[in-house]
Amino acid sequence: MPSEAAGESGADVWMRTERGGIMTERDFKLIGERLQRFREIRGLSRAVVAHRLGITTEDVEDLETGKTRPRREWIESLREAFALDPGWLLGGKTLDDL
């Protein structure tokens, strides 16, 4: 398990870029854009994604627009429900890797 830097909560430690830094608002926006792109490629509605994650369609919209930070369990649920590679979603891989 990674060590926690001073001032970081356990919930935030997983949100690191490949460079090792804490993700910024720009990173969260990228995650949202990638989630929206994935959803559109697969022909999924926000309602379907929300149902599979156990959240509201408004939560999905907020994730896609970067208004809400992704929670670890949501990323894991996306992986389990849709076989979505977290590495792609978190920005470390190209669209070809989807």
Number of E strands: 0
According to CATH, the fold-level topology of one domain is 434 Repressor (Amino-terminal Domain)
Name the shape in a single word.
globular
Which sequence of SSEs, written as H and E, runs from N to C?
HHHHHH
Please, how many helices?
6
Low-confidence stretches: 1-14
CATH class of one domain: Mainly Alpha
Can you describe this structure in just a few lines?
With 98 residues, the protein is mainly α. It has helices spanning 10-13, 25-42, 46-53, 57-64, 72-82, 86-89. Helix 3 crosses helix 4.
Model description:
- It is built from 6 helices and no strands.
- By secondary structure, the chain is mainly α.
- α3 crosses α4 (57-64).
- The protein is globular and about 30 Å long.
- The model is unreliable at 1-14 (pLDDT under 50).
What labels would you give this structure?
98 residues, mainly alpha, 6 helices, 54% helix, disordered N terminus
Give the arrangement of secondary structure elements.
Blueprint: H1 10-13, H2 25-42, H3 46-53, H4 57-64, H5 72-82, H6 86-89
